[in-house]
UniProtKB/TrEMBL annotation:
<dbReference type="InterPro" id="IPR029062">
    <property type="entry name" value="Class_I_gatase-like"/>
</dbReference>
<dbReference type="InterPro" id="IPR006286">
    <property type="entry name" value="C56_PfpI-like"/>
</dbReference>
<dbReference type="InterPro" id="IPR002818">
    <property type="entry name" value="DJ-1/PfpI"/>
</dbReference>
<comment type="similarity">
    <text>Belongs to the peptidase C56 family.</text>
</comment>
<dbReference type="Pfam" id="PF01965">
    <property type="entry name" value="DJ-1_PfpI"/>
</dbReference>
<feature type="domain" description="DJ-1/PfpI">
    <location>
        <begin position="3"/>
        <end position="178"/>
    </location>
</feature>
<protein>
    <submittedName>
        <fullName>DJ-1/PfpI family protein</fullName>
    </submittedName>
</protein>
Length: 188
């Protein structure tokens, strides 16, 4: 059975971890959550308050990481998912995150990312010449990385499927699952 890797950390957007995790399990894939260390992760919920100029952040669910990034062998996985939230700010500095993700792109394996995950991908050079969605405030990061920001609910560019935020989940996961069915089909 093909395995999918969700790469995240503390302060990841709760819905952007849990929705793909459950959706991919429902589809029949085995899913591992990788983080800088194996521990109980603390996710957050970003929400909107009418009097705020930006989103607010509240504590979300806790969930255990299955594997440390240092122990991830990309060859063991058919695809990767990178949730948003604040975790990508810190993941982008992790050498094992860089090793794992650049391997997925080099092998042309499916990669789904959403929201602020684009800030973790931008320094790796994998967005150059590519179209990608992200949280609109990340558009400058995408453009400085040589990518084209697209304000849409699901953007497919080769092996990459991206979205703006958790409200895009249905379209984002529908497009990603379609790509997985082509490139990492389940044996039924």
């Amino acid at each position: 059975m093909p395995k999918i890797l969700i790469i995240t950390g503390d302060a990841a957007e709760d819905l952007e971890v849990m929705y793909p995790y459950q959706r991919l399990l429902e589809e029949g894939y085995e899913v591992d959550i990788a983080a800088p260390t194996v521990k109980q992760l603390q996710f957050v919920v970003h929400d909107f308050v009418s009097s705020f100029d930006t989103y607010t952040e509240k504590p979300g669910h806790c969930w255990p990481a299955d594997v440390a990034l240092a122990d991830v062998h990309p060859a063991d996985y058919a695809a990767a998912v990178i949730p948003g939230g604040r975790a990508p700010e810190f993941l982008r500095m992790n050498p094992d995150f860089r090793r794992v993700i650049t391997s997925f792109f080099a092998e042309n394996k499916p990669v789904a990312h959403i929201c602020h995950a684009a800030v973790a991908l931008a320094p790796l050079g994998v967005l150059e010449g590519r179209r990608t969605a992200a949280w609109p405030a990340c558009a400058p990061d995408v453009e400085m990385a040589g990518g084209t920001f697209v304000d849409a609910e699901a953007v497919v560019d080769g092996n990459m499927v991206s979205a703006r935020a958790w409200n895009d989940h249905p379209a984002w996961m529908r497009a990603f699952v379609e790509l997985l069915r082509e490139r990492a089909p389940l044996k039924r």
